Amino acid sequence: MQEWTKSYSATQHFGVLLFDGFSNHCLANTVEPMRAANTLSARALYRWQFLSLTAGPVTSSSGLQVSPHDTLSNAAGDMLVVMPSYGFLGHSGWRTQASLRAAATRFRAMAGMDTGSWLLAEAGLLDGHRATIHWEELTAFSERFPEVATCRERYVIDGNRITCSGAMAAFDLVMHLIGRDQGQALALEVAQLFMTRDSARSHMGGAGSASAFVNRALALMQEHLETPLSIPEIARRVGRSQKVLEARMRADLGASPTQVYRRLRLNLARKLVAETDLPIGEIALRAGYDDPSAMTRAFRAEFGTSPRSVRASAS
After folding, report:
1. What whole-number distance in Å separates Cα of residue 175 and Cα of residue 156?
2. Can you give the residue range of the structural domain that contains 300?
3. Where would one find the signal peptide in this protein (predicted)?
């Protein structure tokens, strides 16, 4: 069972270890959801540093140069994300292995993104763990590292070892971590911000076909914020009973359809309050409330503050 809301955790510190040939797409899908979680929560839930093995800029596969904040030897934190992507075999060798093994004593968790799993395995850091890698390398990976239990998964979390198969899966992984650590309500907000239609999958980490109708229910809710549908009608449209929809949504998101729908509508209200000059009455109508006072009460119960206070702090 997932948790819908949680008390926000202390700031988590990530190191992102880049190598020449890293994927811009993978990097963005790793850090942008964390940046969005910080913005939406108005808290520094995540901090990250770009790292390299040696001083100097690192160049991505498409030519983007990044100037790292520091070298790996000076860094420590909650999680080290290893991101070589293309040309990863050229980054293997004893220096990389020694650096990663030393870093494993300073970081609470080690994550291999895309082909980063190969470098972690070569350093002996995945021995006895379940792991995945970019699926183009899966066969070679399993043959090269028989001591690793290779899995064809989008991502695998096995204790303090995390591996991920590629750039799109990196987004799913980080969304899963946000939902796990900060609550599914914030994860759903981040999914909305990135306009991921498959919202439940985005922060459930690739939820299987059993949750496909939850995704459809979320899409219906998002499409009918101003004129809300009844929960029985949503259940009918996704081809399930209300009881089944309730149970599946509680399992996937830790909240009832009514709670989730209210949050989506109030997220819209909060955005309009903060970013527009629309009257509260107009905002209430756009969020599916006929009575502005009812919306204000629901807003305060959900966010712990009033619409007017949010607007005042945003100005």
Report:
1. 14
2. 208-304
3. none
